[in-house]
Please model this.
Amino acid sequence: MSKPILFVSAAVVLLVLLTGLHLFYGFEPGTVPELLTAFKSFEANSYDQAVLLYQRLPRSLIALYAGSVSAVSGFVLQSLVRNPLASPSTMGVNAGAALFLVASALLFKAGTAVQGAAALFGAVFGFLASTALARFAGRRNDPRGLSLILSGALVSMLFTGLTNALLLSDPMSRNEFLSWLTGNINHAYIDRLALFWWIGALSILALAALARPLTLILLGPEKAASAGVNVKITSRLAFLAAVFGSGSAVAICGPISFIGLIVPHIVRPFAGNNLARALPACLVTGAILCLIADLIAREALKPIMVNTGLVTELFGGIVFLLIVKRFYLTPRGREAS
Model:
């Protein structure tokens, strides 16, 4: 069995076990068989079954969606940008989606569906703003791609500041979005998942269909063009799919940072840069990390629940520093860049 298949198989088994743990942790072990019957026939007078179906299950589904879509988007962005620090959270995508969603809700009193459309538009706008600023700063003369990451950081800070300013200007709506803005996997957002899940699904399907030409592009644009790949159109479609996917995750539960940054570095040693192998591995690994983060957020300080985004930022920030050290501060990393 090849290493990528072995990795994905082990990850799938771990994902199934973690999903079970996420759903049933905290219940008495003896009540699990009774709880399982809730999926067939729900008993209205059972408090545990109500918690399972209306709180635990929605949280699990949202975590699975947000983690998998963010991870796949992050891998594609890192591959096309050719920078190990690229991700939806470092290229203005998440911040742009959050700003446009909050603006649509507070300024135009938009409903949930329109908020989702605004988030998608904001994700694209944030990405384009970051790339435009990087070009203005001289990205062509920056082979290590630092200008793009710094531009993304600046755009993200600007958009986050504008989002906070909007929330401060409307105290009545502040509480509704303040928790969401820090990445909140909450059962209350299951209606948003029901509205937007198909966007992430189409995004992943589109990237899967583009896996072979994208892999050829990673080997070199000239080689890809000689094999009949339209490099410009393929790259743009892949960028759009990745940005739309991560934007849909933000529209549901707010920005869950660093999943898209960390997962590609976990997957790449096992699957390499072949997207046909790497994307399924990212899909499963991203879901696993998001489930773990949400379980920690839910149980670590019980009865207090913290937002999942805070957990991913804590651990993601540490990994971010390790990635910077490896690729930019060590002699081997400087030579590779």
Q: What stands out?
A: The chain is about 80% helix and 0% strand. The chain has a mean pLDDT of 91. The chain has one domain: 3-21+48-328.
